[in-house]
Amino acid sequence: MSVMTTNRHRVRIDGDILLTLDGDIVTIATPRYEPGIFFVHAELMEVHVVPKGEDWKVKLKTTGVTVPFQVLPFTVPAAQIPAFTAFVDRAKEARERSLRETSST
């Protein structure tokens, strides 16, 4: 599932991970990790991908933050890689836009 509106992009990965980009804020909702919902500014999010067969092993990380849930590992099934890639591309655009806005003020 991938839903796009003007400012929001949402994708469900592997059944129970819901990623939402709304403006420059990424929300990660999943029952896999406490407390179950995480908010990360696009400027602080890192995405690390390692191909594993046809699937991808992914770690979402935050930079400059020292909290127990700063690394969220999961697998992106092969069929969901295009939707996940589109989500990451939109998050990168939001990050770049936010950095430009910050540097111009």
CATH A-level architecture = Roll
What oligomerization state is this entry in? single chain
- For the biggest β-sheet, the strand order reads 1-2-3-4-5
H/E topology pattern: EEEEEEEEH
Shape: globular
Q: Identify low-pLDDT runs.
A: none
What is the mean predicted local confidence, pLDDT? 84
Cα-atom radius of gyration? 14 Å
Report the structural category: alpha+beta
Report the sheet-strand fraction. 35-45%
Helix content: 10-25%
Amino- and carboxy-terminal Cα gap: 37 Å
Q: What is the CATH level 1 assignment?
A: Mainly Beta
Beta strand count: 8
* CATH fold-level topology: PH-domain like
Tell me the major beta sheet: 5 strands, antiparallel
Core attributes:
single chain; 105 residues; alpha+beta; PH-domain like; five-stranded antiparallel β-sheet; three-stranded antiparallel β-sheet; 1 helix; globular
